[in-house]
């Protein structure tokens, strides 16, 4: 710029300086205006429309390494009839890609340290084995989604051939996304070539394997505008897919994702069942999020997953059933983590995440109440439009510090739900009157006299208006 200025006359110089000052002023003004703009109010927007099969789904999460004695795709395929009978609609396979060796944790390494996004982990079988699992699932009317770890890779990833794909520190060194995640390297989404690589990869899995969507690991670590672009591009290949964000944020719902994690609800549930919060906090967190999220947002409800200590270990058998009863009856889409339906207590979070620790399915013999609970609750949900798609209205009761009560309503159908979040029996009233029949699974015949109600410790009851 200085060389240009020296060649010009004083008049030209003055005009140039004035123009430059105007440009600088305009930039400062635009920054000031932007800073004064109100935050985007997502509650006034609508969530991306989801297909009915997503709204009605029960998602079943599978850790292939731990699911069967063989720890492979074929072990899952052999069990599809049982899963269909259980009532699940969507299988979510945790990462199915080869695991990196460099800087790996534990004996086997984390499935979230991916070596090649385009390849199949040979420990799980061949590409044809995976295609057969998908085809056999589809033949039974069950969808299949896979975990995509788009935020980072293993240190010996095939993508390391292009160092520009990765985030670097001030010394020019490739770094992990979080200091504790030393086994993975952070990807740089400022690079348009990386974005194209990941989008092409997502298209590949939908096109070549017939997959029905993705669960996107730490989705909030990646810019939302990337996810919106990726979704639009994948929709051109196959529009009828499910995208689940491992994150909790309103901005993911308008364009990119069908579902996100209801982490705040889960954290509150954990504290309530441990006696650290009153039960009415569940209502508060639901109301707070309903006021912030786009209209029609779908949330994935869960009491257990691979990141958590097993629910049965945290809450006990009855507490775990109370927690999952809430998951099945709240609005949103419920998750079942593999082994829950047998009362399995085998941990799979770190450090177990890096080892081979198969589900001990034989627990089912000692936990008959749990074995009966899952198929019965899923069948009830499938039979009820109110539970799958109805509005949720919270109902008052006579001890809201221990008991949650709400109604699910759709058309002429109304289901009233009451769950005791404490170990102490409850006798009291709920804000419901009229003629109801009890539809609690496996409950036998009990007198119904709403608004009066009794609940065992960690007990739950469901009623349908006649």
Keywords:
TIM Barrel, single chain, 466 residues, alpha/beta, 14 helices, Immunoglobulin-like, globular, disordered N terminus
Structure description:
This protein has 466 residues and is an alpha/beta fold. The protein has 3 domains: 35 residues; 340 residues, Alpha-Beta Barrel (TIM Barrel); 73 residues, Immunoglobulin-like, CATH 2.60.40.1180. It has 14 helices and 17 strands. The longest helix has 27 residues.
Outline of the structure:
With 466 residues, this protein is α/β, with parallel strands linked by helices. Helix content is 34%, strand content 17%. The chain folds into three domains: 2-36; 50-389, Glycosidases (TIM Barrel, Alpha-Beta Barrel), CATH 3.20.20; 393-465, Golgi alpha-mannosidase II (Immunoglobulin-like, Sandwich).
